[in-house]
Specification:
Elements (H helix, E strand, L loop, with lengths): L2 E5 L4 H9 L5 E5 L12 E4 L6 H10 L4 E4 L6 H6 L1 H22 L2 E5 L24 H13 L5 E6 L1 E2 L9 H10 L4 E4 L3 E2 L2 E2 H13 L4 E5 L5 E2 H11 L7 E4 L17 H6 L9 H6 L4
Parallel strand pairs: 1-2, 1-4, 2-3, 4-5, 5-6, 6-11, 7-10, 8-13
Antiparallel strand pairs: 9-12
Helix pairs in contact: 2-4, 4-5
């Protein structure tokens, strides 16, 4: 990649990813209303109508873009249920248009998906080939997007769940937990929802390795350990020597938006591509390297 269109530059993942991208790339990063405080000579931050296919296509031509990375998404489950139109526009329409433009110009398209698209009834880990069965509107939009874009041969779809990283505008899941505990405020975490998270910096480096290897299709990037979100909070407290009494158990009930109880992703495919990663996929390793 030489000239890159990076969609979602002001989000948590985008903001942290852009900090680490090579200086020998010319990057055009789209932002929303959030202000960007970091400045790099090779990055241009700008606003682009991501629902306008012609404008995006023209931009691709004018700037000789050879790859699109899309990390823009509405991930708040409650907000997706309350504003389905907005959720569909951001999570489905935009990636669908970006894929169309990428295909027209025969350039690479990288898209961030989620571990949320299964019904959670399976025991064990979900492989890339397991049939999706989304439970709520957020997961439905992410699944719809995958279906719209996966037919393009130069598409790389990443399914994952990450922690760590920070911006001035948004806390990551782990930072939310740690900041609450440090202020001696309690936080409720699901003890009946299991996942396989990786830290954000490992995720970024691994996606870049996949891009450099010219890997396409759907790839899970996940830790090797299944853990509840409650136990994950406890584990964070133990590692940072914080008082775990502020971590409280939360369970789903009839009033909460339905979530899959098992979101654990298999990383067998990833380990076949990069065998050296096997020892780095333990949750202990991921937490130990949370800030690098």
């Amino acid at each position: 990649m030489r000239n890159l269109l990076f969609v979602g530059g002001s989000g948590l993942l985008g903001n942290n990813w852009l900090k680490s991208l090579s200086k020998n790339k010319k990057i055009f990063a789209t932002i929303n209303k959030n202000k960007i405080n970091q400045k790099k000579e090779n990055i241009t931050y700008f606003k682009l109508d991501l629902l306008n296919e012609k404008k995006i296509s023209k931009f691709i031509d004018q700037n000789s873009i050879d790859a699109i990375i899309n990390v823009a998404a509405l991930t708040n489950i409650e907000k997706c249920e309350k504003n389905k139109k907005k959720a569909y526009e951001i999570n489905v329409k935009i990636p669908k248009i970006l894929k169309k433009v990428a295909k027209k110009h025969s350039i690479r398209f990288v898209h961030l998906s989620t571990d949320h698209i299964f019904n959670g009834k399976k025991s064990g880990f979900y492989s890339e080939n397991y049939k999706a069965s989304p439970l709520n509107y957020y997961s439905k939009t992410k699944f719809f997007a995958e279906n719209f874009i996966k037919d393009y041969k130069k598409t790389l779809i990443i399914r994952t769940n990450f922690f760590g990283g920070y911006t001035r505008n948004k806390e990551s899941f782990s930072e939310l937990i740690l900041n609450k505990i440090r202020k001696k405020n309690s936080i409720k975490l699901w003890d009946d929802v299991y996942f396989t998270p990786v830290n954000i910096f490992f995720l970024i480096k691994t996606i870049e390795r996949l891009i450099n290897r010219n890997v396409f299709g759907i790839i899970n990037i996940s830790s090797s350990n299944s853990i509840s979100k409650y136990d994950f909070g406890i584990k964070l407290c133990q590692y940072f020597k914080l008082n775990e009494k502020y971590i409280l158990k939360n369970k789903q009930n009839k009033k909460t938006i339905l979530r899959p109880k098992n979101m654990c992703l298999s990383n067998k495919k990833l380990c076949k591509i990069f065998p050296d990663l096997k020892n780095k996929l333990s949750l202990d390793y991921q937490i130990k390297n949370i800030y690098n």
